[in-house]
Amino acid sequence: MGRLQITVVSDIHYASAAEQERRNHETRWIKSRLGKAALAAYRDHVWLREPLLKNYLLDRFLERAGSPELVVANGDFSCDTAFIGHTDPASRQSAEECLGKLRRAFPDRLLTTMGDHELGKVSVAGKQGGLRFDSFRVSERELGIPGFWERDFGAYKFIGIASSVIAFPVLEAEALAEERPLWLAQRERLLEAFRESLLGLKPGQRVLLFCHDPTALPFLAEDPVIGRFTGRIEATIIGHLHSPLVFWKARMLAGLPPIPWFGATVLRITKALRRAKLWKPLKPRLCPALAGVELLKDGGWLTVDLDLAGSEALKITRHRLPR
What we know:
CATH topology: Purple Acid Phosphatase, chain A, domain 2
Structural class: alpha/beta
Radius of gyration: 19 Å
Helix content: 25-40%
Largest sheet: 5 strands, mixed
CATH architecture: 4-Layer Sandwich
Number of helices: 11
CATH class: Alpha Beta
Shape: globular
Mean pLDDT: 93
Distance between the termini: 38 Å
Strand content: 15-25%
Strand order of the largest sheet: 3-2-1-9-10
Number of strands: 10
Number of domains: 1
């Protein structure tokens, strides 16, 4: 049956001109000078300096990616500087420009998965923003980023699912109260689609899962139907963590209790880490952000080489992107 070469890219965080105008979009909400300085130092030396000026990395990736047979873009297409996802016109414009470049480079060969920045999240400081259900609608219906998708390739079924919707029990406090029933209904729709897909697997068929944020993985592993099929999931390609260093630290801190005293971001992260031991059954493999993290400048992308007959194991390779 031959082989299939797949390229996976994640956490592009493209910034339109309107988003680029929002310099200091995080620190401007902080009143304390010490708080501003601490967050700026963390950004500049650990996480990512000048995050709104990294569009050139997408162009650099496109130059180096060549002509793969299939490309999966695993979420976070904008910088989400208003923290409400694609309901914000500037963030939506960023996603449109980013997706436009990807679709022109890989016509009829691109699959897209929804990330957390597509939907909104409370800011690191200042308690701004949060999940917006209209951002889910815009992402699906207008930007063409489905909440769930599946494709068959020989002995494999590829599945993509919107991680923030599945992980909604962790994120519920960041949603508008009146929208919580909409999120819960959407969550059940996506879970049911995933269950039906797994129940329809052909004998011997394996799954390659694409799920942006690993916070969703414990909910999938614990589902009474989905959990029965974890042995047939060959790997889950995640993003969100940006760097192999962060992925390693997350696994080391698995089981950490939730910490509610340092804001929404710390609470969100520690609630996810509390259940991170349940990531293992879904065999997560990280696709780094194009920029990586500032501390290591370890950005890049993945390639996946698979035997369509399923007689050989997947070969997943990480490629560095210089910046």
